Amino acid sequence: NAGVMQNPRHLVRRRGQEARLRCSPMKGHSHVYWYRQLPEEGLKFMVYLQKENIIDESGMPKERFSAEFPKEGPSILRIQQVVRGDSAAYFCASSPTVAIHISYNEQFFGPGTRLTVL
Amino acid sequence: QKEVEQNSGPLSVPEGAIASLNCTYSDRGSQSFFWYRQYSGKSPELIMFIYSNGDKEDGRFTAQLNKASQYVSLLIRDSQPSDSATYLCAVRGTGNQFYFGTGTSLTVIP
């Protein structure tokens, strides 16, 4: 059973370009979470999605950032017109449906995408 | 007020000692509590979860939960240099969202 997959692992963009980060959750997981982590800082929640639905995007900047989790394919975090301050590690995590059993609701993290904006 | 608070450390303990990591949370309706370990440059990995008051033991790790005090802790017995990492406390809120603390940096000195 493959874990959470993220690609690319490293992404370099120039200011003003677009960054697309992909996340494939673990098999059987229908919940996806995106986090941003700056050097020496904790994980900052960005968005929580289920298939075809954004459940909570309270942590996502209102401009330039968007996320989706289509019926087919991976979840995508899109950053338009990147700026240097967007340089960070972006982690995706997935978890199974909460209703199955409370002990099955932990999150499993992907390896992350390290975005560098020049 | 932050949802989850941790002492950022750094915390240093000698090899073989007990490391104690603490966490408090603000949402009284939270049901599940997690400890993750993150090595530098790596992604967080789950160590333990707990959802009932009291202690839960797994090998050298013991998680403790006190819902009345809104307090979670992680004890690491017989600390090893390989335990040196940042430990993240996470709480699953009533809205199914996860809140993470900023992490406590632990160094185990050989």
Keyphrases for this structure?
heterodimer, A: 118 residues, mainly beta, 4-stranded antiparallel β-sheet, 0% helix, B: 110 residues, 6-stranded mixed β-sheet, 5-stranded antiparallel β-sheet, globular
Molecular structure report:
The complex is a heterodimer of chains A (118) and B (110). Chain A is mainly beta. In chain A, 0% of the residues lie in helices and 47% in strands. In chain A, the strands form two sheets. In chain A, strands 2, 4, 5, 6, 9, 10 and 11 form a seven-stranded mixed sheet that branches. In chain A, strands 1-3-8-7 form a four-stranded antiparallel sheet, with no helix packed on it. In chain A, strand 7 (65-68) and strand 8 form a beta hairpin. The radius of gyration of chain A is 14 Å and the shape is globular. In chain B, the strands form two sheets. In chain B, strands 2, 4, 5, 9, 10 and 11 form a six-stranded mixed sheet that branches. Chain B has strands at 4-6, 11-14, 19-25, 32-38, 45-50, 54-58, 61-66, 71-76, 85-92, 98-100, 104-109. Chain B is built from no helices and eleven strands. In chain B, strand 9 and strand 10 (98-100) form a beta hairpin. The chains are: A mainly beta (118), B mainly beta (110). Chain A binds chain B through residues 31, 33, 35, 41-45, 48, 55-56, 91, 93, 98, 102-103, 105-112, and chain B through 31-32, 34, 36, 42-46, 49, 51, 88, 90, 92, 95-103.
Mean pLDDT of chain B: 91
Computed over alpha carbons, the radius of gyration of chain B is 13 Å
Shape designation of chain B: globular
Arithmetic mean pLDDT of chain A: 90
Task: Determine the most extensive contact between two protein chains.
Answer: A-B, 24 and 23 residues
Largest sheet of chain A: 7 strands, mixed
For the secondary structure, the number of strands of chain A is 11
